[in-house]
Amino acid sequence: MTTNKRGYSDLTEILSRINDNLKKIDDKLEKIVESRGIKEKADDGNQVESATLDVMTLLSLPDHLRKTAMILIRLSRATADQVSLESGRKRAVESGYLNQLVVMGHVKKMRQRRDVYFYIE
């Protein structure tokens, strides 16, 4: 298989754009983590900011679950109705996604009277 200089140039450009997009995603996710303000101890004993859903966990989620999780992070505590208003998806769909996140251990839920609230510790 032979590749000319143009092929390498195109590949380099594509990889550069992918790298730039990953940096932007990482920056946005770091802002979300910082806004959560949850503290935990690092290996050296110092306090560091993190959240139950850290950057790598968010990146490992499928797009549909990541969108739901990021909305829940922004809202702090919400019902499936509230999340569906933010996402533009049906309440039943969001309820299913939120319950998937509960089963995966990323989200907690609690019942208050007739409402079920989802939140991240």
What's this entry about, in short?
The chain is built from 5 helices and 5 strands. The longest helix has 32 residues.
Percent range of helical residues? 55-70%
**Corresponding CATH architecture:** Orthogonal Bundle
SSE string: HEEHHEHHEE
Q: What is the CATH topology assignment?
A: Arc Repressor Mutant, subunit A
Poorly predicted parts: 38-44, 46-51
The CATH superfamily is Winged helix-like DNA-binding domain superfamily/Winged helix DNA-binding domain
Strand portion: 15-25%
CATH class value:
Mainly Alpha
The rounded Rg comes to: 19 Å
Could you please describe the fold and organization of this structure?
The protein has one domain (5-119): Winged helix-like DNA-binding domain superfamily/Winged helix DNA-binding domain (Arc Repressor Mutant, subunit A, Orthogonal Bundle). It contains 5 helices and 5 strands, in the order αββααβααββ. It has a 3-stranded antiparallel β-sheet. The protein has a two-stranded antiparallel ribbon with strand order 1-2. Helix 3 packs across helix 5 and helix 4 (80-87) crosses helix 5 (91-104). It is of the alpha+beta class and 121 residues long. It has helices spanning 5-36, 55-60, 63-75, 80-87, 91-104; strands spanning 38-41, 47-50, 77-78, 108-112, 115-119.
